[in-house]
Structures are given as structure tokens and as C-alpha cells.
Amino acid sequence: MASKGLSKGAKKLLDNGTKYTSFCNGHTCPIPYATRSMATVSPSVVEPTNLSTAPPSSDPQYVASLPVSTSPKPFRQPRNPFISSVPVTLHSFPSMEPVSLTTYPSTHLLVPLRRDILHRAVIFEGDNTRQGTASTKWRSEVHGSGRKIRPQKGSGSARLGDKKSPMLRGGGVAFGPKPRDFGTDLPRKIYDLAWRTALSYRYRRGELLVTDNLLKIPVRSLPPATNLKRWTKELLEANGLGNGHGRSLFIGLKEKKNYTFFSILKDEDIGRHGRGLGVDDVDVKDLLEGGRVVVERRALDLMLEAHQSDLGPGMRFESEEIAEILGDIEDPEIAV
Predict the structure, then answer these.
(1) Phi, psi for residue 237 in degrees, rounded to 5
(2) Do 172 and 284 contact (CB within 8 A), yes or no?
(3) b vs e for 1-34, b when ≥16 Cβ sit within 10 Å of the residue's Cβ?
(4) How far is Cα of residue 92 from the mean position of the Cα atoms in its chain?
């Protein structure tokens, strides 16, 4: 009965008393391993395994022959080792003549364009800018009597409650707005990446102009009878920064330090050609609007150093003049 179901070869080996040594759950099996097919069973000879002759795990060839895990890994954009910095031309304001050349890290002014990141940053800024102060009164908040206007039945008209009903003029507002907070959240690293992406987009298109000095008008070097508004308008048009080339954005270190130039840009006529903002008032949306962006070098250094939380310690930008940037800067200009 024990040999029932085996092939003739297996029966013959079993009748002869032949034993095959194999490791089967730690003991010696009297019969070889068998592989079962659809209708027959055929013996499969297994050679004995000598554990003492197994290759050690420290053998390099043995380790190299082991199968490698093929689990998927997150894709990372390889960094170009040939691009470590980008050149930036420094201009002199107001003549806008090139005076020198400086460099910035490619991780700050050569970031690939990510429209999704820019979109999330603009929506984040717009949501947090909304005041959310719209408010209406519900019927319980409207001043007036709670007496019923007319009897419930017998008048032939629709039933009504008091005069504060939302269906009557002067009553409460049904489902009206109440003060609320429209602000949304965005990770700091994504927002900082959007800042550098916007600056890189301007730099790649040649629309980022960096000045080596302050954005101020040399009032003392101009004739006393000079019309500053007209002079500023002609200056912007001559340098391709006027309304004909798109409204330009001027970013200064501090707006109060450039009072003359920034106050002229607030004029209704001159404001069509340019817009002036302090470095603390600039958003990602402001960098994407207009024709060109004119920024002071120290203001650019401050913006880049303040928006790099997503970079590692060895990739961050450190300005040598950060102490001077954060300090007060004397401006001899006078107000218009």
C-alpha cells in the first residue's frame, strides 16, 4: 500500500532497499523527491548538499551573484556637474549701463520651470490676502418686533411670521456670509521653491535686471527746474522699461529709503509704466507680473537667502554683506 501510486522505477528502487540521502526537514528520507504531473509520478534525484562547502557570505563573488532587489525607487533629477553658478550682469541705475559681472548658484537662479509649484504659491498668497470681513444679519440679529404680521389662516395670502423674515424687505439674510478666514496652508519648502522658480524664470528670459546701486534718482545732479515726473517717464521709456514694453517692477531694499523714486511711481500717470515695492512687500505673483523686474543686488541677496529652506546646508546661498543689508542705509534724497 505504501508503494501505490508510484511509478515502476520508484517501486524498483524502493524494493531494492536503495536509500537516497537528502535533507528533508532535518532527517534522512528513504525515497527520493518526486514530482507529480497530470497522471504519473516520476522520481527526481536530488544531490546531497554539504553545508560545510557553501561559499561564505563574505566572499565578494558570492555576494555579487546574489539577486538584486528591483523595488522601484523615487526618481531624482541628476544634477549637472558642469553648471554650478550662473553669471549675472550688474547695472548702474538710472543709466542702466553694465558695470560688472557677478555669479549666483544655479540652485537659485537656474531652477527648472514648475508651473504647478507657481500656481500653488499664487493661490496660497491670494487666499491669505482675502480679508474675509463680509458679514450679514440673520433674522434673530435684525432689530424689530417678533409679532406675527397676519393670522395664519383666513387672509388668503401666504403664511408669514414676524417682519424679520428673510422673505420680506428689511428682514434677515438667509445663508448670508459671515466673517471667516480664507487662508490656506502651503509647506514652507514648496513656497521657497516657488520663489526661486519665479526668479529663475525671469532670469532665463532675460527679464531680470540687477542694479549694483540703490534705485534712487540723482536729485542733486539734476538742474533745479527739472520736472522729476517727466524725467522719470522719459527714463523708463528710453531704457525699455515703460508701458510699451510691459509694466516693470522695481524692488528696493526698503521703500522708505528710495522715497523720491517710489513716490513718483505711485503717480497715476507714471504708475502705468512701473511699480515700486519694498523687498518685504514682494510676492511670487508680483515677480510673474509685468514686463521686467529691476531689483537691487542687496535686495536680491536678501530674497535668495530668505527662501532656501528646501536646500541642504551645502547648497544654501550665504551673502557676504548680509549684516549691511539688514542695517540701516542712509539716503540723502528729498521728498517730492
Answers:
(1) -70, -35
(2) no
(3) eeeeebeeebeebbeeeeebebeeeeeeeebbee
(4) 32
pLDDT at 183 exceeding the cut of 60: yes
Provide the CB-side half-sphere exposure for 177 (13 A, CA).
Answer: 9
pLDDT at 257: 57
Judge whether 258 and 274 are in contact, CB under 8 Å.
no
Predicted confidence (pLDDT) per residue in 16-74, tens digit: 544 444 444 444 444 444 444 444 444 444 444 444 555 555 566 665 666 655 666 66
d(CA 283, CA 132): 20
Length of the chain (residues): 336
Residue 314's alpha-carbon distances to 310, 311, 317, 318, 322, in angstroms, are 12, 8, 9, 10, 18
Judge contact between 196 and 304, C-beta under 8 A: yes
Q: Is the pTM of this model over 0.70?
A: no
Residue pLDDT, tens place only, 98-151: 999 999 998 999 999 999 999 999 999 999 999 999 999 999 999 999 999 999
Q: At what angle do helices 115-129 and 188-204 cross, to 10 degrees?
A: 120
The residue with cell 522719470 is 232
Within 8 A by CB and 6+ apart from 52, the residues are none
The three-state secondary structure class of 229 is helix
